[in-house]
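Lab meeting, action items carried over

1. Structure of the two-component assembly. Owner: GW. Status: complete.
Input record:
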Amino acid sequence: MKRSPLPLLTTLLVLVFFYLPIAVLVANSFNASRFGGTWEGFSLRWYSRLWHEREIWHAFRNTMLVATTATLVSTILGTSAAFALHRYHSRLQRFHYALIYTPLVIPEILMGMSLLLFFVALKIQLGLFTIFLAHVTFCISYVAMVVLARLQDFDFAIVEAAMDLGAGWWTTLWRVLVPLLAPGILAGALLAFTLSIDDFVISFFVAGPGSTTLPIRIYSMIKFGATPLINALSTILLVFTFLVVLLTHHLTREHHS
Amino acid sequence: MAPSRRTLHEILVTTPSFVWLSVLFCVPTLIVFAMTFKPADMYGGLGPGWTLETLRHLANPNYPAIIWRTIWLSAAATLISLVLSIPMAYYIARATPGLRNALLLLTIVPFWTNFLIRIFAWKILLHPEGFLKRALVAAGIIAPDTSLLYNPEAVLVVMVYTYLPFAILPIYAAAEKFDFHLLEAAMDLGASRLTAFRKVFLPGIRRGILTAFLMVFIPSLGSYVIPDVVGGPNSEMIGNKIAQRVFVDRNLPHASGLSAFLTLAVLVPLAVVWVVQKRTSGQPPTMQEVA
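Predicted assembly:
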């Protein structure tokens, strides 16, 4: 039977739409021209200029500090939440599920705004610590959802078998459960890590003096010039993102086979 | 396991996330509503006592236009995203496993790419000195003095660009489970290709479409960076006003009032989907619908 060409054409159109702006950005990061309108030859000058920007290194350090700590805490909380949601079906868990699910659908600006008011009302000094608290808050839900999806096809008989064979709770947890669920937990942690590195809106609302993160720095560069430098920085982040996606894809694929 | 031990274990694994989200998600959301009725003090904080001042300011004649623009831009972005993602999801779901994996990866990469970078890439692409503008002018499609940036159309394009992967992925997830033999059966029974698509495929992936609708419409309503970077003064959305009240005038009660309004606005599409799902749930496409 002959199929309509429309789905193929739409797919091609969408892919061009997805990658055209990114391609132009990457090409411009190697363009010697300051404004990027015309090609003035291949150059790495924006990359070397970027290397010497002290403020970017400072922002990068802040971002990494927040991302590692927020990933660690949200992975523990999110994984534990996924276990609770998977194993128990009480009324408490129905509330719990709503609590995990709602932050996923609420626009970021509302979460940023509400956390800002919360910190102001409690007179908590805005800074890296408030950014950390905010990041853990939105990462928990993502980690919980990723781990919960992996738990759906996990056979809990293995746990009972381990305990029947004399393993204690601690041994079962570390020798059976964690190794088997490691790909799922790692995929959740990677998602939390990239979300934390990428977050701008929520961080911007709860940031204080001296707690500039990389996205906040990029935003002010976008608003106030420094175009060629962002091209170079964006290209580096794009390569990094691509590697993370490949890794996550590998982790989830391994799980399916 | 004894019941008490089971309960203890449940409490142990539930408490950390439950307490964290109650304190840092539920309480702050309620605070947004409460702060709407607080006065602002001179230092950008909150004053003592309670007032209806903010509600009076929300009657500002500029707001209806901004609210209307927020709704139509979000609705248009959602519609365009659905129109593009349904055929694309159909194509991915019917592709060979290798091609399917490659297409999914190509869809996920922009979805994981930094949000600011994606918006910035469009600013470069649409720039007055940029390559797209030159090409369009050279081809005689647009006049040399047309601006591709800083208007509502630019905001719309970038919104679709940003949220499209959120529509493709859930619709693909639904299409992947769809039994494509049903389409052939429908056509064997005399339905045209379009009728089969409309009456068998679309109802079959309904859940995916509803999820995609929420995943695009709700974040669109809260857009703030996109109109801020590629939009002009005539393309401001509610999100921009909230940010201005926080970062420019530092009037937290006003920002709270607008946020409270946006929170209520977000509940509307959620309620619509809930009702639609309730009314039509548990009805997979049957042969009767085709006949």
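2. GW to write a short summary for the group page. Key points so far: The radius of gyration of chain B is 24 Å. Chain B has one domain: 41-290.
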